[in-house]
Amino acid sequence: MAESSYAIMANDPVAIIGSEYCTPNEVDVVISRKVKTLRYGEFVVSDMNGNFMFKVKGKTFGWHDKRVILDAADNPLITLKQKILTEHSRWNAFKGESTDEKDFLFTIKTTSIIQWKTKLAVFLANNNSKEKNCDYLIKGNWFDRSCVIYAGDSSTIVAQMHKKITAKSLLIGKENFMVTMYPNIDQAFIVSLIVFLDAINAFNDAVVAGALAGAGASIGAISF
To answer: What family does the database annotate (predicted)?
Structure first.
């Protein structure tokens, strides 16, 4: 069933950021984060020959977290902005460096307030279902780098990620993982979803760390 789904995707290009990021063949990319030298949330995306394809830069301002995805020439393609004061973890994506509503591309959010495993729904700008029917669904386990991206709530896989550990990656202190993108899916769009995954995971880690710190302080306050 999965093979027939891939064949359908191969004949029907899906350009969300740009048609130039859709190729008729399956593509493997490596996403690298220099844990010791880059701020959390900054990546470099390269092909299997080590050629840069995309870069990700992030910064926090006020209550918001923002990430910008650039092409290999440092041209901004997508801006990802965290939406605050919502029940679910939610981020919005915009064209280029804009955060204006007219440049809105899509939104991604957790499907439930508390999640033990990753499950995120993606809604494109032209989705008129009032978030009842998602355009893409992400399932898996971020910690194991084993997430799968589906077209809507279906069995059609458009991309999947898995951990890639090599002796070289351990030696130079990089955290690497691989993403396989199936034919004619927008590769820049898929990269943006991976960035969302990392951002939401970072937010959840911060919440848990804060809760544990608060619990530790309370225990210390009542100890004798």
So the answer is: Belongs to the LOR family.
Nearest to 5 by CA among 158, 111, 204: 158
Provide the 10 A C-beta neighbour count for residue 104: 15
Q: pTM to 2 decimals?
A: 0.79
- The H or E element containing residue 205 is helix 187-222
Domain residue extents for the chain? 2-222
Tens-digit pLDDT profile for the chain (224 aa)?
334 344 445 567 889 999 999 999 999 998 887 644 445 447 889 888 889 899 988 764 444 578 899 999 999 999 998 877 555 578 899 999 999 999 999 999 887 665 567 788 999 999 999 999 999 999 987 666 778 999 998 889 999 987 665 555 544 445 678 899 999 999 999 999 988 887 776 655 544 444 445 555 555 555 43
